Amino acid sequence: MEKILHISIAVFAVLGASLIVGHNAMPSENLMPGEVDVWGSEEEGFDGGGGDDGEWCEHSMWRSQGISGRVPVSVDSFGAVGDGVTNDTQAFIDAWGKACSTKNAVFLVPEGGRYLVKAVKFNGPCADNLIIQISGTIIAPAEPKDWDPKLPRLWLTFSKLKGVKIQGGGIIDGSGSKWWASSCKVNKTNALTIDKSSALWIQDLTFQNAQQMHFTISHSDSIRVYDVQVTSPGNSPNTDGIHITASTDIVLQNCTIGTGDDCVSIVSGSSNIKMKNIVCGPGHGISIGSLGQGNSMGTVIGVVLDTATLTGTTNGLRIKTWQGGSGVVRSVRYDNVKMYNVSNPIIIDQFYCDSPKTCQNQTSAVKISQVMYRNIVGTSKTPQAIKFACSNTVPCSNIILNNVNLQLENGNTPDTFCNCATGSDYGFVQPSVDCLHSESNSRCQAAQNDDEKETEDLAKQEEERGYSAHTEL
Predict the structure, then answer these.
(1) Longest Cα separation, the chain
(2) Model confidence over 180-208: pLDDT tens digits?
(3) Strand partners, 165
(4) DSSP secondary structure string for all residues of 94-156
(5) Which domains does the chain possess?
(6) N or C: which end of the chain has fewer CB within 10 A?
(7) CA distances from 254 to 48, 167, 216, 273 (A)
(8) Which residues contact 158 (CB under 8 A, 6 or more apart)?
(9) 204 Cβ contact partners less than 8 Å away, ≥ 6 residues apart
C-alpha cells in the first residue's frame, strides 16, 4: 500500500502540468476526447494569472462589452407594456426577430419594467455581436394552468447561439410558488435554458423562484457564467440553482446560490467543468449526478471546484449514482472549501435511490475514480462527516484526501464510513480515513487492483511524455 500511496502522490502532482484553465493550455495527448487533467496546483496557473479572483477565460469574444455604438432593439418599441400584468410575449418574439437578424444589435429589456412572458424559445443562429441586455424583470405566469402545452418543460430558452453575451443586472422570476405545491417530479419546468450554444458569456443576472431548475446549460460548450445570483426558499422542491447537462468547457465563477435543491448539479455527458468562488446555501450542496438511473450510462469527466463556502446545506460535496447504471465519474478535484453546519460534508453514494419504492440491489454501477479533496474545513451537522458508500462490484478507487479538517459543531471528531472505497491520504486529515487502505477492503479486491493498475499506468504515461515525478502536490 505504501507503494500505491507514493505512486499516487507523484502521479497526481505531475498531472497538474496539463490542467486546462487558460486559453493557452493544451490538452494532454493521452486524454480521451473532452477529458481534462484536474490535479494541478495554484503554482501551475490554476488561477489563470489573475490572482485569487482571476478570470479563467481571456478570449476576446468573452470580454465584458458595453452597449454604446450598437443598435438597440427594445421590447418596448415592439409593444411591451412592462406592468407585470399584460402579456408581453409577442413583443419579445418580435423584438428578438429584429435583434437576432441585425449585426451589433442589443436585445433590450429596459430597467424598471416587469414583463410578463409566457414560455418562448429564442432561436439562433443570429447576426454577429449580439448582446442580450436584461435590465428589467421578466416574470413567468403564476398559474401552471396558463402554461403553453407545447412547451411543458421550458420557460425561457435560448438556442443555437454563438458568441452572444447575456447581461444587464436584471431579474428572471419564475413565479414558482404554485408549481412547488404540485408534483414537481411530474411537472418539470426549467426557468432559463441555454441549449445547443457555444462561446456565451452570462453575467450579472439574478434568478429567483423558479418553477423547478433555475438555470440550465444543455448540449453546449464554452459557456462562461459570472456574478450570477440564484435564490429560492430552502423548502422549494427540485429548484436546482445551476444545472449542467451534456455540456463541456463550462466556467461558473463568483456565483451565490440558495435554493431548495442542489446549488450546482452536473449530470451525464458533461466534461471540463470549472467552478470558482461559489457560495451555496440553503440547498442540497454541490452535486455530480445523479447518474445511472434506469440502468442508463452516465459520464462526467474533469470537474474542478476551487474556493467555495457552503452553509446549512443538506449535503456538501456529493457524487450520487444509481445501482444498475454504467459509465464513469473521473478526474474530480475539490479545493479550498469551507463548510458550516453542513450535513454529509463529503459523500460518494453509489446506492442513491430517489424513489418512493425500494431500489433493487444490482451489480453494475457507474465507476468512480480519481477524486481529490484538498484543503476542506468546517463543521458537520451529522455524526458522519465523510461517507464513501461504494459498490461491492464496481468499487470507488483513487480517492485522495489532503488537509481535511471536519469537526462536529460541539468540537468533537465526527465519523467516517467506507464501503469498497480505496485510496490514500496525507497531511492532516480529520476524521481519519484509514478505511481507504484497510484490510477490510480485501473483499473489494477489484478496487485495490484498480488503484495499483491505474496509478502505475498514469505514471508510465507521464514518464513517456518526459515529465519528472514530484513527491508533493
Answers:
(1) 72
(2) 887 555 556 889 999 999 999 999 999 99
(3) 131, 201
(4) HHHHHHHTSTTEEEEE-TT-EEE--SEEEE----TT-EEEE-SEEE--S-GGGS-TTSTTEEE
(5) 70-234 (2.160.20.10)
(6) N
(7) 15, 15, 17, 15
(8) 122, 124, 132, 164, 166, 192, 193, 194, 195, 197
(9) 167, 168, 169, 226, 227, 228
Low-confidence stretches of the chain (pLDDT beneath 70)? 1-67, 183-188, 439-443, 445-473
Chain-centroid distance, C-alpha 19 = 18
Task: Give residue-wise pLDDT tens across range 131-171.
Answer: 999 999 999 999 888 777 777 789 999 999 999 999 999 99
Q: Are residues 239 and 266 in contact, defined by beta-carbon separation less than 8 angstroms?
A: no
Amino acid letter at 212? Q
Q: Residue written as cell 462562461?
A: 224
Q: How far is CA 258 from the centre of its chain?
A: 14
Contact by Cβ (8 Å): 365, 388: no
Q: Which pLDDT score is estimated for 26? A: 29
Q: What is the pLDDT of residue 4?
A: 42
* Geometric angle at alpha carbon 64, from 62 and 67, rounded to 5°: 120
Quick check: 255 and 277 in contact, CB under 8 A?
Answer: yes
Tell the residue number behind the cell numbers 457560495, with chain if given.
279
CA 55 to chain centre: 17
The proportion of the chain whose per-residue pLDDT surpasses 70, expressed as a percent, equals 77
pLDDT of residue 437: 85
Report the candidate in 225, 320, 235, 331 with the shortest Cα–Cα distance to residue 278: 225
Residue entry with cell 487492483:
449
Cα(194)–Cα(172) distance, integer angstroms: 14
Decide if 219 is catalytic. no
Cell numbers of 35, please? Answer: 477529458
Distance CA 356, CA 354 (A): 7
Task: Write down the catalytic residue from 59, 284, 437, 470.
Answer: 284
What was the pLDDT predicted at 186?
A: 57
Instruction: State the pLDDT at residue 464.
Output: 47
